[in-house]
Amino acid sequence: MVAQSDSAFPMAGYSDGNNRRELPLKPSARAGRSPKVATIADVAQLAGVSPMTVSRVINGEQNVRPGTREKVQAAVAELNYVPNQAARHLAGSEPIRIGMLYVDPGAGYLSEFLIGLLNKATLRHVQLVVQRCEAARVGDEKAAAEMIANGIDGLILPPPFCDSQPLFQLVTDTDTPAVVVSSGTPPEGVCAVGIDDYQAAYEMTRHLMSLGHHRLGYIIGDPSQSSSARRLAGFHAAMADAGLNIEEEEVVAQGMFTYRSGLDAAEALLSQERRPTAIFASNDDMAAATVAIAHRMGLDVPSDLTVVGFDDAPLATTIWPELTTVRQPIMEMAGAAVDLLVRHIRARRGGEPLPSEHQQMDFELVRRQSDAAPRLRPPLRRGAGTAS
Fold first, then answer.
1. Contacts with 377 (C-beta within 8 Å, 6 or more apart), sequence order
2. What is the pLDDT of residue 93?
3. Which of 40, 169, 244, 285 has the greatest number of beta carbons closer than 10 A?
């Protein structure tokens, strides 16, 4: 139950889950004097929670523990905190329009992201406005500026726009609420949702080494995206911690997070005289391309070559063999981005803007059929008559 409205005073009320309790107002308020008007920060301090938690309780959001909710409601009553009802009415009734930029709707990551975004926008009664850009980082700020000029209330920026400095400058200059998703290094002052790319890549690399692989291939993602650097750093750290000589035991190739770039990178890795026994591609599209190249070269996956990916996009379970991969909860991340942005938009409309926050969600290593221990082969035997 949310905090009571003005009609609940001079006796402030809150619910303990079963019965309504009444708390008398402070004497100064009953005496007709003009005490200092309580703020949301005052309520947060008395309840021992953050202003964001107070805002969630007041707005009736469900993701608050019952005990915490009761403490906040008691603090609201004790301080006689009365939110600006007119502002709250506007915040709750005026439609919210959220904008999003995208590049390639066919990419596995983005298709999952769009589903999560649409589902949550429907549940929150939010209008979603999407704008396709022909190429990332080329005029992306112009497209966003047009959306802002047309009245959108906030922006959600998935890859590759999550690392666009021109866009960050735009939302700062126009004071537009924004949430970046899957940025390896989210900027200060902008809300963000993502996972720990470094730790996820570290754990996948350790998994490959636990299977017995030491000659590891790695396909790097788009160098303009900070998540690519974070994943590569996690890969390197795992090898270093295992005591492997990175210069001798790693084989890397540049990709761009696309299937086409994965084909080229995998061919380069597997054409080497001493090819890797396992390839870690930094997304599932490039991992799927690696499997295709391996099959074309007559290599069995995983007997001859282990292949693992990152994302757990739909493609991971539609190819054969199904991919072992790092699962980041893409649809849940999209939903969290909508919730986060809506909360900040409503807080601004209510005259009490919230500080930016970065939500880190859990990842999971999902093991399927594309990984195995390296095949042990007997050493080559010299033929008769070969010089010793």
1. none
2. 57
3. 285
* pTM (2 d.p.): 0.73
pLDDT of amino acid 330: 94
Backbone angles phi, psi at 12, to 5 degrees: -85, 140
Cα 178 from Cα 132, distance rounded (Å): 18
Supply the DSSP symbol for 257: S
Q: Cα separation of 342 and 382, whole Å? A: 70
Which architecture does CATH list for 95-195+330-361?
A: 3-Layer(aba) Sandwich (3.40)
Reading the block at residue 54, the tokens are 């107070």
* 3 contacts 57 by C-beta, under 8 angstroms: yes
- From 3.40.50.2300, 3.40.109.10, 1.10.150.120, 3.30.413.10, which CATH number describes the 197-327 domain? 3.40.50.2300
Eight-class DSSP state of 212: T
Query: How far is the C-alpha of 144 from the C-alpha of 147, rounded, in Å?
Result: 5
Beta-bridged to residue 180, according to DSSP, are: 157, 192
- The predicted pLDDT at position 132 comes to 83
Domains 6-83 and 95-195+330-361 share a fold: no
Contact present, 293 and 265 (Cβ < 8 Å): no
C-beta neighbour count of 206 within 10 angstroms: 16
What class does CATH assign to 6-83?
mainly alpha
Q: Which residues of the chain have pLDDT under 70?
A: 1-36, 59-62, 83-93, 105-107, 134-140, 376-388
**pLDDT given at position 186:** 87
Q: Which residues make beta-bridge pairs with 360?
A: 194
- Find out whether 189 and 355 touch, Cβ atoms under 8 Å: no
| Contact (CB, 8 A) for 326 and 312 | yes
Q: How far apart are CA 58 and CA 233, in angstroms?
A: 42
121: its two tokens = 């926008």
**Residue 380's pLDDT is what?**
42
